[in-house]
């Protein structure tokens, strides 16, 4: 935990008579980067990652980073790096003034020594970063940059105190100098680190890292098997998103649909998803073409004989899912994992008619599946540890956060969401405006309210799961007809509408 004595270390290094040069390789994040900024120069390998991601933990940089970073890279870039917890490579750091020279890892120590000698012999007096003002711009420029950053932070992080606090501390240094800024930084850090926000974010950080450690699965010497080819059944909203996520990670995908028209629609959705990723800059054209080449369409099960995993994503109907699981048990190889993307249905019911209970597992993605990071992995009491490990591995491979949960109606996420949605429907039933409910929840800190979320996911899913909840929760279930009324009046929700629009454009 940073305190004044630690900050004194970087001040001591910076104020020392002997030059200190930081040699950076790998990651220099948070306190690591702050320490290097206390040095007289920074030499790095080109691919090293530099950043101050403290705000994601509900605090601000506490070793002088809020003061030295703006003095080295300028206010706009420093604010972007801190408020958005953005990393940059050393190569960019060199262009921005954060890194003084780049070299290979073999030459790193030698080069850093040479820099220290040169500073000692020829570059006197050396101006410490904390005393620099040349990158801060004029006072009025700084004020305008800080003011628009405050507006932006209010929009994206209205309930998070660390964003405005970070800007206050940066401003203190701009107005009264780096040392005053460092004093304020230490004071604010100590307050924030004890805040409920920080405690919650630190908990979430460690919890996220624990998700891939599952007792009885990841600590029993099992090795993940290679999953080379995956079949996705259903090329609708979810199936096309799941297929996209797999293809982007270089996995061969067989996409099965019921007829050529729906198959073509699914393939085009995948192409559009990939193009979207290219537009967002997260995929190159080459990778998009490679991904498309790994996709094969199918209208029957003949390509299923060598698949390592099947992910079923057809509509939420118990008899349909049961008959599909009967079919795939027959056609897939015995090692093949049989996964379902069901949102709610008890997996024992899905696999009831098969003899493959040990390889039946839930792979519950969230919409849009190629973007949302959560992958809820549902295990029954019979699912084998190997199948769970393999799905965790696939999850990591496609850059999801895999969370293993137990089996019951709604699993963990939708079961938790059930009373939340029910509460909001109960309020509507006594006459409260849906928009007001959404507004109150958004201002509480949720990214959107329950009705906007339901609209985004589509009313088809809400209708399909209604009966499943009614059966599972009996009298605890509020029988609201709001969604039925929306559908009767031609409302489908946002994503399904986009989906339909897309279908019209392509057919
Ligand atoms: N929509 C969501 O937000 C969401 C989120 C998580 C999970 N889910 C779950 O994902 C599943 C699919 O939902 P969706 O929203 O993608 O539905 P969807 O209606 O958009 O797509 C379902 C697709 O399955 C196809 N299909 C039906 N029977 C088939 C068969 N025998 N073989 C091959 N394809 C077949 C249909 O033609 C359709 O294209 C459901 O179980 C749902 O509960 C949905």
From TrEMBL:
Keyword Isomerase recorded:
yes
Q: In which pathway does it act?
A: Lipid metabolism; fatty acid beta-oxidation
Q: Which GO terms describe its molecular function?
A: (3S)-3-hydroxyacyl-CoA dehydrogenase (NAD+) activity; 3-hydroxybutyryl-CoA epimerase activity; delta(3)-delta(2)-enoyl-CoA isomerase activity; enoyl-CoA hydratase activity; NAD+ binding
The reaction(s) catalysed by this protein are: a 4-saturated-(3S)-3-hydroxyacyl-CoA = a (3E)-enoyl-CoA + H2O; (3S)-3-hydroxybutanoyl-CoA = (3R)-3-hydroxybutanoyl-CoA; a (3S)-3-hydroxyacyl-CoA = a (2E)-enoyl-CoA + H2O; a (3Z)-enoyl-CoA = a 4-saturated (2E)-enoyl-CoA
The 3-hydroxyacyl-CoA dehydrogenase C-terminal domain, residue ranges: 410-493
- State the superkingdom: Eukaryota
Task: Share an example GO biological-process annotation for this protein.
Answer: fatty acid beta-oxidation
- Ranges for domain 3-hydroxyacyl-CoA dehydrogenase NAD binding come to 229-407
Q: What is its main location?
A: other
The record's keywords, sorted A to Z, are: Fatty acid metabolism, Isomerase, Lipid metabolism, Lyase, Multifunctional enzyme, Oxidoreductase, Peroxisome
Q: Where is the protein localized? A: Peroxisome
Q: Name one GO cellular component term.
A: peroxisome
One Pfam family from the record? 3HCDH_N
Q: Which InterPro entries match?
A: 3-OHacyl-CoA_DH_CS, 3-OHacyl-CoA_DH_NAD-bd, 3HC_DH_C, Enoyl-CoA_hyd/isom_CS, Enoyl-CoA_hydra/iso
Coiled-coil region: none
Q: Provide the family line.
A: Belongs to the enoyl-CoA hydratase/isomerase family. In the N-terminal section; belongs to the enoyl-CoA hydratase/isomerase family.
Assembly description: Monomer.
Name of the protein in question:
3-hydroxyacyl-CoA dehydrogenase
Species in which this protein is naturally found: Zizania palustris (Northern wild rice)
């Amino acid at each position: 935990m940073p305190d004044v004595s630690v900050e004194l270390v970087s001040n001591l290094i910076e104020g020392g008579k002997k030059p200190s040069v930081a040699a950076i390789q790998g990651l220099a994040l948070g306190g690591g980067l702050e320490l290097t900024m206390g040095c007289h120069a920074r030499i790095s390998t080109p691919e090293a990652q530099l950043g101050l991601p403290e705000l994601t933990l509900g605090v601000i940089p506490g070793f002088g980073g809020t003061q030295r970073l703006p003095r080295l890279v300028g206010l706009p870039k420093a604010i972007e790096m801190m408020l958005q917890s953005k990393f940059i490579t050393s190569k960019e750091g060199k262009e921005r003034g954060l890194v003084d020279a780049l070299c290979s890892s073999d030459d790193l120590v030698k080069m850093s020594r040479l820099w220290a000698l040169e500073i000692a012999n020829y570059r006197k007096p050396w101006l410490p970063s904390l005393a620099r003002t040349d990158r801060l711009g004029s006072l009025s420029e700084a004020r305008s940059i800080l003011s628009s950053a405050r507006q932006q932070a209010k929009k994206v992080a209205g309930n998070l105190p660390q964003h405005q606090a970070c800007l206050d501390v940066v401003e203190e240094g701009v107005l009264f100098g780096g040392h005053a800024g460092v004093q304020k930084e230490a004071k604010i850090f100590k307050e924030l680190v004890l805040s409920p926000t920080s405690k919650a974010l630190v908990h979430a950080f460690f919890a996220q890292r624990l998700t891939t450690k599952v007792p009885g699965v990841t600590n029993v010497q099992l090795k993940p098997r290679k999953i080379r080819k995956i079949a996705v059944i259903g090329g609708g909203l979810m199936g096309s998103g799941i297929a996209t996520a797999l293809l982007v990670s270089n996995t061969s995908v067989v996409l099965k649909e019921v007829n050529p028209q729906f198959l073509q629609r699914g393939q085009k959705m995948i192409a559009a998803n990939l193009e979207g990723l290219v537009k967002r800059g997260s995929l190159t054209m080459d990778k998009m073409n490679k991904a498309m080449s790994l996709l094969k369409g199918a209208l029957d099960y003949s390509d299923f004989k060598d698949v390592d995993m099947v992910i079923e994503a057809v509509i939420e109907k118990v008899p349909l899912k049961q008959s599909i699981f009967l079919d795939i048990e027959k056609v897939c190889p015995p090692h093949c994992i049989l996964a379902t993307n069901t949102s709610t249905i008890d997996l024992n019911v899905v696999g009831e008619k098969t003899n493959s209970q040990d390889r039946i597992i839930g792979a519950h993605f969230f919409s849009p599946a190629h973007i949302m990071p959560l992958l809820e992995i549902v295990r029954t009491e019979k699912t084998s540890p190997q199948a769970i490990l393999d799905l965790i591995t696939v999850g990591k491979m496609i850059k999801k956060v895999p969370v293993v949960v137990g089996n019951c109606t709604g699993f963990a996420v939708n079961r938790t969401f059930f009373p939340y949605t029910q509460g909001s429907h109960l309020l509507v039933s006594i006459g409260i405006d849906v928009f007001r409910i959404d507004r109150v929840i958004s201002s509480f800190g949720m990214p959107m309210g329950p009705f906007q979320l339901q609209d985004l996911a589509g009313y088809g899913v809400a209708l399909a799961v209604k009966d499943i909840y009614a059966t599972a929760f009996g009298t605890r279930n509020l029988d609201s007809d709001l969604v039925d009324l929306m559908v009767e009046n031609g409302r489908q929700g946002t994503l399904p509408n986009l989906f339909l629009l897309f279908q019209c454009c392509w057919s």
